């Protein structure tokens, strides 16, 4: 499947670090996961992938198939390194699903969530490596003991272990404010419609309730509910004008129907004597079920 190019609209992200983290995968067992991690790196502005004792990654193989556009740069430029080289060169963050509960299990405690790690890394400029372990058993205690920090993704306690590619994607997403300079999302703020137009919409809604013979003692409540809904929604100018058109047309038709009924001596629109249009029985039932004072 071909991939669409990034959109033209761009949104400036938060202040990225001048030095991007590198991503290290220790003894990956599945080439597809290496490709997935490379793709996630490309998505979130990272390019330096390092692999400890990786499997073969042929260009026509699974890793390149999963890498998307990262097959053009991140994956072919991946460097094979040793674990010793990583711990001696970088400030290291080990990623694991299994954590300690207190300081008695110090190898896996204390730990940071991805959001907490983002906050921590944002306060310091240092070469950082995000270290992921094997698909089958992750990083072992000896390896974690050599790393500077531990990070764990919160998940359901019944099954907290994420797929390697998924874990990398979640972590890199959380760190995006440190690594991505511009997003693809358009740099457009949502603008609420002018208050005069919003107020006119409230007037049209009130007229609609009146034309529809909504019971008068319930009308104020409906108008208040409608005001609360619009207050939370912050409707745009287009949304408000669309609703104005709908209520204007509804009010015109109800008014015309009433004029015709009056001209020919018939009951008003909706059936029944004036003031008791269709739906009145439902409103009476609604009153009976509603214990709140009017």
Automatic annotation (TrEMBL):
GO biological process: methylation
Entry's Gene Ontology molecular function annotations: methyltransferase activity
Methyltransferase found in the keyword field: yes
UniProt domain tRNA/rRNA methyltransferase SpoU type: residue ranges: 22-173
Signal sequence segment: none
UniProt-annotated stretches for the region Disordered: 1-21, 262-294
Ranges of Polar residues composition bias in the record: 9-18
Keywords: Methyltransferase, S-adenosyl-L-methionine, Transferase
Family matches, as InterPro entries: Alpha/beta_knot_MTases, RNA_MeTrfase_TrmJ/LasT, SpoU_MeTrfase, tRNA_m1G_MTases_N
Sequence ranges of Basic and acidic residues compositional bias: 277-294
Family of this protein: Belongs to the class IV-like SAM-binding methyltransferase superfamily. RNA methyltransferase TrmH family.
Protein name per the record: RNA methyltransferase
């Amino acid at each position: 499947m071909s991939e669409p190019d990034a959109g033209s609209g761009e949104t400036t992200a938060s202040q990225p670090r001048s030095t991007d983290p590198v991503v290290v995968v220790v003894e990956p067992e599945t080439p597809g996961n290496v490709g997935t991690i490379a793709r996630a790196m490309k998505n979130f502005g990272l390019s330096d992938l390092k692999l400890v004792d990786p499997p073969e990654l042929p260009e026509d193989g699974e890793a390149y198939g999963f890498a998307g556009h990262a097959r053009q740069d991140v994956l072919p430029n991946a460097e094979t390194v040793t674990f010793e080289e990583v711990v001696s060169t970088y400030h290291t963050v080990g990623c694991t699903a299994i954590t300690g509960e207190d300081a008695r299990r110090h190898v896996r405690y204390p730990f940071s969530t991805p959001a907490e790690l983002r906050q921590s890394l944002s306060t310091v400029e240092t070469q950082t490596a995000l270290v992921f372990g094997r698909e089958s058993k992750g990083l072992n205690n000896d390896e974690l003991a050599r790393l500077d920090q531990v990070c764990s993704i919160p998940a359901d306690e019944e099954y907290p272990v994420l797929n390697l590619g998924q874990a990398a994607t979640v972590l890199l997403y959380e760190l995006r404010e440190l690594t991505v300079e511009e997003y693809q999302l358009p740099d457009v703020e949502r603008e609420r419609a002018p208050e005069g137009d919003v107020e006119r919409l409230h007037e049209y809604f009130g007229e609609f309730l009146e034309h529809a013979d909504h019971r008068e003692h319930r009308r104020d409540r409906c108008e208040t509910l409608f005001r609360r809904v619009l207050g939370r929604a912050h409707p745009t100018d287009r949304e408000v004008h669309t609703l104005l058109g709908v209520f204007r047309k509804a009010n015109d038709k109800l008014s015309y129907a009433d004029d015709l009924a009056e001209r020919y001596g018939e009951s008003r629109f909706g059936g029944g004597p004036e003031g008791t249009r269709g739906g009145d029985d439902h409103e009476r039932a609604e009153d009976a079920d509603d214990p709140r004072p009017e």
